[in-house]
Amino acid sequence: MYFCFILEERYVHKPMPMVVADQLEQWGHKIDVLQPYAAVTSLTDLSLWKYDAYVLKTVSDGPGLTILEAAEAIGIPTINNSRAIRLVRDKAVAAAYAHACGLPVPLTYFVGHPRALSKVPHDAYPVVVKPSNGTSMQDIHLVRTPEEMAMLTLDESTHYLAMRYVENTGYDIKLYVTGQEVHAVTKSSPLHGQVQEDEIPVSREMLKLARQVGQVFGLDLYGVDVLETSEGLVVVDINDFPSFYGVPRKVGAIAEYILHAAYRARRERERHEERRTLLQRRRASLHRQDTTLVPAELMRYNPNVKRVQTH
């Protein structure tokens, strides 16, 4: 198999996703690494077609997403799907879509400028204020009253979400999906104290929620940030292709899934080609013995009609 890993500038010196590419290479597969910020990419010759699949771990609005969409547009498998990436990258869109699809998310408001935070309804407090692009985990604030909100200093060039705070255990749970496997890892919350980060058993509720998120957003490799509350699990964030910190055997599991997806896509293409070839052969073998057609009432006047003597 032949894979293209699109490597955004931010991840040049980070292990993910290159450890997965290295694993696939060790298994005998061919890997190309495309750095969209440092190269020109041909879109009109056979360069895009030569790969069995494209893999992208992207930043918000990174140039790699354009290349992924171009490959997807011509029928090459991509991990993750570009539309799924765009859905979860804008946290406002993700919250609206998740709620519309029945996923448990807190009451959430979109705020186009920090000064508009004063208009958040009083009965929504306490609220968590965070950037809608999800790029800065440090810029997350728990605001308990409108008076506290008035004292908040934020970046005026950033859009924000105001999400109703839900009482929870004081730590986050990351549900990591490495293709077919689901892992649950406890993580320190930016709103609470530090906790020891450990893998914990995946409950039925966690498994069901992870499956639902994948089905709703069309994701293959993803993470779901959830909180344990008195009313069950609540989704507070969704990430395409996270770093999977704390997940055992993550490299092998992700590499296996990428192979599985590429082989499945190849089999589908081959079956499609077989069906098309068979249909073309059937069409070629089907033909009329005589192409002459005339109105019935004019049959006896048409000199081209051949008559057969029946007696």
Automatic annotation (TrEMBL):
List the GO molecular function terms: ATP binding; metal ion binding; ribosomal S6-glutamic acid ligase activity
Which GO BP terms, alphabetically?
SOS response
One Pfam family from the record: RimK
**Mind telling me which PROSITE patterns this protein's record contains?**
ATP_GRASP
Residues forming the ATP-grasp domain are: 95-267
What are the coiled-coil residue ranges?
A: 262-289
Q: Which GO terms describe its cellular component?
A: cytoplasm
UniProt KW keywords: ATP-binding, Coiled coil, Nucleotide-binding
- Tell whether Ion transport is among the UniProt keywords: no
Gene3D superfamilies on file: 3.40.50.20, ATP-grasp fold, B domain
Q: What is this protein called?
A: ATP-grasp domain-containing protein
